[in-house]
Structure formats: structure tokens, C-alpha cells
Amino acid sequence: MKFDNLKDGLNKFSIAFSNNVYMKALSQGMMGTMSLMMISSVFTLIGAIDIGPTQAFMASTGILQICKLISTMTIDIISVYIAFLVAYKLGDIMKKDALNCGIMGLLAFFILCPLTLTVSESQAFAVSNFGSQGVFTALFGSLLAARLYIWAVDHKLTIKMPDSVPPFVANSFAAIIPGILVAVLFAIIAYVMTLTPYGTVTAMLMKFIQTPFMHLGNNIFSAMIIVAFIELLWFFGMHGVVTMMPIIMMLWMEPQMANLSAYAAGETLPYLFTYGFVLGNRGARSLAVSLHCMFNCKSERLKATGKLGLVPALFGISEPIKFGIPQVMNIRMLLPLMLTPAVSVLSAYLLTIIGFLPYTNGVTLPTGFPVIISGFFTNGWQGIIAQLVQLVLCYIIYIPFMRREDKFACAEEALNEQEA
């Protein structure tokens, strides 16, 4: 009964959390920047190649400058893209003019970003406001601006053009009054902030939201709890990473972007706990289970499942193993399912604090990138060793549980043969 109550409670939480329009807009909008982060990662890695005369060659041929320019126009101004994408996604989810919502998000973000006076006494934006430091300003501005635009449209506060006017022209006129409301509101907010000790919205959000979030995610206990909870959701058949993505993004995406930016600039990496560190060091759990099935299990069903799941597991795809064993809704598998990612992240943390594993460089790898090899691109050769250690740990943890599962499977197969 308690088990069913837990299942129902988690299912309700997952549905409510995943279906919240603001969480969906935040998650989908920030996920929309993944392609930019991957582009930046590729050229950052190219620019970081330092074998013999490679750096001198790339500098003399302009390759290094090209790589730095691409990095600057992607990761160093990532908040600009976030401001547009989050607002755009909110408009799309709420079935309004998504493009105008995105423009309102940009407008709000630019108004909130402080202007600085240069040596020539001209006004300019500091690029630092557009990078990882401006993420929460972008989120605040884009969500509020898009919601205000949608509210104005819903209340008919728009200029209605005749039906004969082309839609793209009519939409432009329809955005004028909502746009004025957005501009005035955020200009007032920006002005009021100049009268406070913080000076800007970015500084205030940094103090009260961004920094506390950083502290919340900047410890091993948060990382272990999150990765274990992701697998608990998987146990009930819910996609754990997708469900938890808004929280993961809020906790560790800003450090991820900050590390990538520092890595591209050749500076010291500031953060241990990042998006890549937490999700990339959960261990090759499904690969460990697949190897158990193939080489240690006597059950024909488990052997077949291991063979079927091996190749997907090599690329970080766990569904064949999770549903084939099954680990989903199998109480015998719950403990190792939650324990292995937590222990794997802990091992990466310990290897880092003893000085063996360098900080994750912020490089974002595409979904389905081969496990073990991925460690090289994010942590160098030490990353390969760390992920091999995690594979061994996962394999060891699963030994007693897979033995018991094999006994159940063999008994089930023997019973089926008798009945046949």
C-alpha cells in the first residue's frame, strides 16, 4: 500500500512538474542552447590543442582567432540566446505568437542589462553581462516579458488591423502596445534598481537567487541525491533526466557555461560541480549490468537482454537494460539502481579533491556519445580512468543483486519449461 502511495505521489509530482508551462519553457528554452554549447565546445577543443607547434601554427594561420571568435559569439553571450529562446518557448507552449514573445524577452533582457561608459564616453554593454552571469537575468526577464505580452494579447490590448493586411504585418502592429508595456515595466524596474544598494537586477539576482543556487548545487550531497532521485523516477517508468532537467539546469548549467568560457580563455576553471560533472559521472551502469548478463548470468533471457543492450549501453542508452531485465518496477533492482550513480559521482568527487581528476572543462557532448571516451573530452586522459573506475564500481555493486535476479529468472524459465 505504501509502495503504491509512493508511486502515485511521484507520478503526480512528475506530471505536475513536467506540465508546468513555466518549467517547460525554462527547460526547453535552455535545452535549445545545447547546439550552441556544442558548437562552442568543438571550437574550444580545437583551440586548446597544444601538441608541439600546433598553437603557433593556429595563431599564425588565424585558426586560433576563428575559434576564439566562435566561442565569444556562442558561450560568452549565451544569456542573449536564453532570453529569446525561453520567451519564445513560453509563447509556443501557450499557443501565442512565439516570435513576438521571443522579441519581448530580448527587449526585457537588454533593458535590464546595465550600460557602461567607455573611455571614449560612449555607452556599451559589458560582454560579461551576456555570459553565464546574466543567465538568471535572462530567465527572469524573458518569462515575465513573455507572460506580460500574452496577458496583453489575451485582454485585446493590441492594434487590430483589417483582415486584408498580411499576417506578418498585422502581427507586427499587434505587438506594439504589448511591447510598450514590456518596455515601460522593465525600464521602471531597471531605474528603481539604480536607487537600491544593488544597482542592477543582475546584481540583486546574483545575491539572492543565483549565488544561493550555486551554493545549493556546489556540494557532493546535492549531486548524489539528484542522480539517485533520477533513477528512482526511472524505477517507476518515468524519464528521470527529462523530469529533473529544469532543476538540473538551474543548479549546474551556469557553472557549466562558466567553466567552458574559462577553458576557452585559458583561465583556471572555477567550478567543480557542473552539468557535465554530475550527469557525466553517473557511471556506465547499464554497461555494467549488460556485462553481468552476458558473462555471469545463467538465465537465457538475461543473457539475451545483455547482448541486446550492450551496444546501446556503450553509447549511454539505458532503456534496453532498464526495461529488459527489467529494472523498472522491479523492487529487487531498486537499491543498485539508485546506489550506483550516487557512488559513481562520489568517486569522481574524491578523485577530484585528491588532485587526480581535473575540473570538468564545460565541453558539452551530444546525447549518445560513447561512454568512457566521453571522459577524455571533458577531463582529459584522467577522465577515461575515472569512468573506468566507475564502471568497475557499478559492476561490483551489482554482483549480489544480479546473482539474485539470475536465480529468479532461472527459476521462472524452469517453471515455464515444466508447464510447456
Automatic annotation (TrEMBL):
Q: Which UniProt keywords apply?
A: Cell membrane, Membrane, Sugar transport, Transmembrane, Transmembrane helix, Transport
In Gene Ontology terms, what is one molecular function of this protein? Answer: protein-N(PI)-phosphohistidine-sugar phosphotransferase activity
Superkingdom per UniProt: Bacteria
Give any Pfam family that matches: PTS_EIIC
Its subcellular locations are: Cell membrane
Record GO biological process: phosphoenolpyruvate-dependent sugar phosphotransferase system
Cellular component, GO annotation: plasma membrane
Q: How does it sit in the membrane?
A: Multi-pass membrane protein
Residue stretches making up the PTS EIIC type-3 domain: 6-401
Listed InterPro entries: PTS_EIIC, PTS_EIIC_3, PTS_IIC_cello, PTS_Sugar-EIIC/EIIB
Q: Which residues cross the membrane?
A: 33-51, 63-86, 98-118, 130-152, 173-200, 220-253, 334-359, 379-398
Q: Where is the signal peptide?
A: none
This molecule's function is given as:
The phosphoenolpyruvate-dependent sugar phosphotransferase system (PTS), a major carbohydrate active -transport system, catalyzes the phosphorylation of incoming sugar substrates concomitant with their translocation across the cell membrane.
Q: What is this protein called?
A: Permease IIC component
